[in-house]
Amino acid sequence: MAHFGKLQLGLLTWLAGVALNLVGYALSRAFDLPLTLDGVGTVLLALSGGYLPGVTSAFVTSLLEIVKEPLALYYGADNIVLAICCALAAGLGKFKLPLLLLAAALATLTGMGLRSLFADYVSESTSLGFDSLTAQLYGQSITHEALNGSSWWLILLEQASEIALVLVIFTLVPRLPRFMSSVLRSALFMADQSLVGASGNVSRVISLRTKVMLLLSIALCAIALCGTAISYMIYVKDTIDQHIKVGAGVAQMAARLIDPDRVDEYMERGREAEGYSKIERLLYQLRQSNPSVEYISVSKIAEDGSHVVFDLDTSDVSGGQPGEVRPIDERMKPYLPALLAGQNVAPVVTDEGYGWIMSIYMPVYNDDLDCVCYAIADVSLERLHSDGISYLIRLSILYVSVFAVIFVIGLWIAENNVIFPINAMAYAASRFNATTQSDMLQGLERIKTIGINTGDEIENLYRAFAQMATENVGNVIAIQTKNATIAKMQNALIMVLADMVENRDENTGEHVRKTAAYVRIIIEQMQQDGIYKEQLTPKFVSDTVNFAPLHDVGKISVSDVILNKPGKLTDEEFAIMKGHSLAGRAIIDRVIATVPDSDYLNEARNITAYHHEKWNGSGYPEGLSGTDIPLSARIMAVADVFDALVSRRSYKKGFPFEKAMDIIREGAGSHFDPKVVEAFLKAEQKVREVAEQFTPAEDSAQS
Fold first, then answer.
1. Number of Cβ within a 10 Å radius of residue 592
2. Range of weakest confidence among 252-261, 341-350, 437-446, 690-699
3. What is the DSSP letter of 611?
4. CA atoms within 13 A on the CB side of 187
5. Are 300 and 263 in contact (CB under 8 A)?
6. pLDDT on residue 104
7. Cα separation of 381 and 61, whole Å?
8. Distance CA 148, CA 52 (A)
9. Which whole number is the average pLDDT over 643-666?
10. Which three-class secondary structure state does DSSP give residue 190?
């Protein structure tokens, strides 16, 4: 019901535009104005609603105007051009005056061309005779002067005046354009492409819209050519048939005037024969009453030639005197046997000597049914040229007008029922982001907002697409939820494992948690400062932070005696202690070899193996230096050493915070990566908060 109401309102708006056209036309005729102003409503609809309402209103207005002015249907083409140009101008510049003046100029050129074609045709056709096709259809009021009276500036003034009137209306009622656009688009069920940005899609080679336009253009041109050719052939055939009927009627009337028993007397005595002059006068009157008949003659066909009985051009040097024998024309020799036998022959068409002539022979029979002579009517076909050209012009203009309407309707159907729905779905799919649940839900809402209701296979495709997207979002969210649960379990297991290892050392306490916190602080500061930004991918950051607690997992292979020794370790004991790096790497390697798709453990391996390497190459277990040391291990080294400095051990007390920071600063470029140290020192306040959070009260008091 809502759509029905919008359709009714849109139809009323369109009818109002057509009515405005007719009012302008009626006023111009009533007051004998030089400007027709029958395109004001068309311009109004084109600027507000686009091509479809503008073009259709121009065409319908022309159809209604032919009741008073037959040529209006053909002149309406300039209003169609004006509607297209105004719609294009509105789409590009929102009523910018230069574009609208260009639209008026293009429409003016179209109007001038149409009037020139018709003026030239009427001038030629009326000069050939009052019974021409144009005179028959439109009467004597159509003259070359009347048609040519509309000069280019007057036509331009008319188009510009129509545009100016619409702009004045828009100025007086500023909300009218938006209102009409909303009403017309709703009535035409035109989707709002800005809703999903479908119009921004770029095709790889050629857009579907262009393909539809090409297909419509090719199809319409093919139909126009075929239709024009067929129509013209039918027109020529019908015209010739009509001329045959006229010529046959004239020849038959002429034959009835001849007394078959006195034909020989007519040839022998001529005008001295009784009744000859009267028959000749009647034949002249018969010819004058039919302007298309060029000649009327009566001849007796014999073996020695054509014997003249009556020739209306006897006063002319080309005429023949009664009884004169003329040789048989070459064009007639094929028909000579039939003529000698007194039979009817088909009309003979020639285009030599006297122009394009069709000769019709009507036999004159005596009482014994013997053919004594033939009454001949020569019908001119010269007007067939001019009338045929006019017919082609009018037919072409009519095709252009009708096909312009068909084209915009076809393009509207294609855009709103095929092109836009497909582009909208493609755009929504391309903007779909599965990074977070919020992004996925927003993308799903974008897909549902399209709301394709074409009632055909496109709608079926859209519904299947929306259903698939809904199901996929549900599946992805479920998978992400499970992955998040698994990640929490993994992190919990890592922390439990780290605690199990570290708790063997009675003095380590919260070491794994603090070092993980320092690692996160360092990485966040590095990201903020743009340090090693190519390496700090989301996966690297996540893996490094999550696996930092495993850096000392190799200590599980070290004896409790060494781990908890209160004094300094001997060289042999320290060598055993250093082995925890390789032992940790071996543990991670076994996990990697066992678990499929375990690339995420690579940083865990790097951290456990190389967090005791030094920037200057004096570290262990492999003596790596500089950037040969994995970045995750270089970050871990700073966090591990700093926590060892500020934390209490069985063999020492913790250093004050400032002292520990100074030691880290001094180690930059020798023990630690200078850039990592730079980030660590810049985040001093966050580091202090973590250190104080886990420092025992008595240590704080001593500090």
1. 16
2. 690-699
3. T
4. 22
5. yes
6. 66
7. 37
8. 31
9. 84
10. coil
Beta bridge partners of 37: none
Q: How far apart are CA 466 and CA 443, in angstroms?
A: 11
Residue 148 CA to residue 158 CA, distance in Å, equals 15
427 in Cβ contact with 197 (< 8 Å): yes
Per the listing, tokens 């939820």 go with 481
Q: What tokens were used for 565?
A: 């020794």
By residue count, the chain amounts to: 703
The DSSP result for 50-118, as a single string, is: -HHHHHHHHHHHHHHHTTT-TTHHHHHHHHHHHHHHHHHHHHHHSS-HHHHHHHHHHHHHHHHHHHHHH
Q: Smallest Cα–Cα separation from 126: which of 291, 246, 247? A: 291
Pairing of strands 325-326, 305-311: antiparallel
Phi-psi region of 139 (alpha: psi -120 to 50; beta: other; left: phi over 0): left
Coil/strand/helix, residue 132: coil
* Alpha-carbon torsion angle 44, 214, 233, 389, nearest 10: 50
Task: Provide the greatest CA pair distance for the chain.
Answer: 166
Backbone angles phi, psi at 95, to 5 degrees: 70, 25
Whose tokens are 């034959």? That residue is 255
Is 320 strand, coil or helix? coil
Assign 96 a pLDDT band (cuts: 50, 70, 90): low
How many beta carbons lie within 10 A of that of residue 190, not counting itself?
A: 17
Residue 656 and residue 643: Cα distance in Å, rounded? 11
Alpha helices in 530-570, H assignment, sequence order: 538-547, 560-563
d(CA 439, CA 588): 35
What percent of the residues of the chain are helix, what percent strand, and what percent coil, each to the nearest 5? 70, 5, 25
Structure token pair of residue 550: 């495993």
Beta pairing partners, 490: none
Q: Who contacts 674 (Cβ-Cβ below 8 Å, separation ≥6)?
A: 615, 668
Count the alpha carbons within 13 Å of 519 in the hemisphere toward its beta carbon: 29
Asked if 643 contacts 490 with a C-beta cutoff of 8 angstroms, the reply is no
List the one residue out of 411, 413, 424 whose CA is nearest residue 212. Answer: 411
- How far is Cα 680 from Cα 687, in angstroms, rounded to an integer? 8
Distances in Å between the alpha carbon of 79 and those of 37, 217, 393, 394? 10, 20, 18, 16
pLDDT in tens, 245-284: 999 999 999 999 999 999 999 999 988 998 999 999 999 9
Residue 195: pLDDT above 60? no
Strand, coil or helix: 343: coil
User: Hey, what domains does the chain have and what are their CATH numbers?
Assistant: 2-190 (1.10.1760), 234-387 (3.30.450.20), 504-702 (1.10.3210.10)
Residue 653 and residue 627 in contact, taking contact as beta carbons nearer than 8 Å = no
The sheet with strand 348-351 has its strands ordered as 325-326, 305-311, 293-302, 371-380, 356-365, 348-351
Cβ atoms of 184 and 14 closer than 8 Å: yes
For 117, the token pair is: 């074609």
Place of tokens 């920071």: 661
Q: What are phi and psi of 371, to 5 degrees?
A: -80, 115
Q: How far apart are alpha carbons 444 and 465 in whole angstroms?
A: 11
Provide the residue type at 380 as one letter: S
Banded model confidence at residue 698, pLDDT cuts 50, 70, 90 = very low
Sign of CA dihedral 415, 418, 419, 422: positive
DSSP annotation of 638: H
Q: What is the DSSP letter of 650?
A: T
